[in-house]
Design goal:
The chain has 14 helices and twelve strands. It is an alpha/beta fold and 358 residues long. The chain has one domain: TIM Barrel (Alpha-Beta Barrel). An eight-stranded parallel barrel has the order 1-2-3-4-7-8-9-12, surrounded by five helices. The protein has a four-stranded antiparallel β-sheet with strand order 5-6-11-10. Helix 12 (258-267) packs parallel to helix 13 (301-311) and helix 13 (301-311) crosses helix 14. The chain binds manganese (II) ion. Manganese (II) ion is lined by residues 208, 246, 249, 275, 320.
């Protein structure tokens, strides 16, 4: 297991590489070029500059997330071929600089959705990302997007880049005629376009699940259960077609048995990377992101790490979203302190599991 940390780059992250380097057991980043719009080629110059900076800080960067998939690919528009060609170029360029895994998602329009980015946790006064379907009420997609951008402390949130949202209305309209089956067919077309390139240059694609793990606003969503991912790994049968198992996203649906899903796909060699965090259920389609500790939420992190140890022990892990604690402000979900605590806790579980297994 390689413990990593998400980092958005010096200009768009409140956390520094030096701080990340000082977290015990941290080996590297899940990195990103934060200002790249979906569909754009990531040039060698840009990747090199990012990697040089990361390596100079004593960290590795073998995982990138996300290289966003252009909406035209998901919608199956004729323009998709150019965007797929660009994606292939980006894969090749990233591979040249040591990238082994690319995390991405195939969610229409919304990368992830919350109704509150800083809901106070009454027990201790910290705050975290929160979702309550009832709070969506009459809010339409446009309103929720507006409120998310306004409440992100000045940071652009991943998946909510202004450029990508400019044409939101048109895109939503177009999706009305796209069924989950259509979306899967478009997904297959995309994988057929890129996986051979991945095989050539030794890069693994890791699909992030829908977050939350159910359909929203009537949009087709095809990646939120074991059954869904069984279909996805079969769309293109290759060790390069894997999932990024995000415990918090899949775990937002209590029906998803996370340790069992890890064993299922880990055993098949189809887990390319993992996001590990905890969730506290507060009712139907209502949850908050809790501290990583098992007792702080409803997922059993010991069982989760044990399943990783037994089925995909070499995978990349990062502590996923953290709470805001100790007065920290920053990009919602991506402060330093709680994610550092999370990494340390997960490393502690790992050490115990490893030693007990000898
Ligand atoms: Mn995640």
């Amino acid at each position: 297991m390689k413990m990593t940390f998400r980092w958005y780059g010096a200009d768009s992250d409140s956390v520094t590489l030096q701080q990340i380097r000082q977290i015990p057991g941290m080996t590297g980043l899940m990195g990103v070029l934060d200002d790249k719009a979906a569909g754009e080629v990531w040039t060698e110059e840009e990747i090199k500059a990012y990697m040089d900076e990361v390596h100079a800080a004593g960290l590795a960067c073998e995982v990138i997330e996300s290289v966003n998939v252009h909406e035209d690919i998901k919608m199956g528009l004729p323009t998709r071929d150019q965007y797929i060609e660009n994606y292939r170029t980006t894969i090749r360029n990233l591979a040249k600089y040591g990238v082994k895994v690319i995390v991405y998602n195939f969610m229409p329009v919304f990368d992830w959705l919350r109704t509150d980015l800083a809901r106070v946790i009454p027990e201790d006064g910290s705050n975290s990302l929160y979702f309550d379907e009832a709070e969506l009420g009459d809010m339409g997609p446009l309103e929720i997007v507006k409120s998310t951008i306004e409440n992100s402390n000045g940071f652009t949130l991943p998946g909510w880049e202004p450029k990508r949202l400019a044409e939101l209305e048109t895109t939503l309209e177009r999706y009305k005629s796209i069924t989950p089956e259509d979306l899967r067919a478009n997904y297959k077309y995309f994988l057929e376009g890129i996986i051979p390139t991945c095989e050539e240059c030794g890069v693994v694609m890791a699909c992030h699940p829908d977050d939350p793990a159910w359909p929203i606003f009537g949009l087709p969503r095809i990646a939120h259960s074991q059954e869904d991912f069984d279909k996805i790994v079969k769309l293109y049968d290759s060790p390069c077609n894997t999932l990024c198992l995000c415990t918090g996203s899949l775990g937002s649906d209590p029906e998803n048995d996370i340790p069992s899903i890890i064993r299922h796909f880990g055993g098949m060699g189809r887990i390319g990377a993992m996001h590990v965090r905890n969730i506290k259920y507060l009712g139907k389609h209502k949850f908050r992101e809790s501290a990583h500790l098992s007792s702080a939420g409803d997922l059993d992190l010991f069982e989760i790490m044990k399943a990783v140890y037994e089925s995909c022990p070499d995978t990349y892990i990062r502590p996923d979203h953290g709470r805001m604690i100790w007065g920290e402000t920053g990009r919602p979900g991506y402060g330093l302190y709680d994610r550092a605590l999370g990494a340390t806790y997960l490393n502690g579980l790992w050490e115990a599991i490893e030693k007990m297994s000898r």
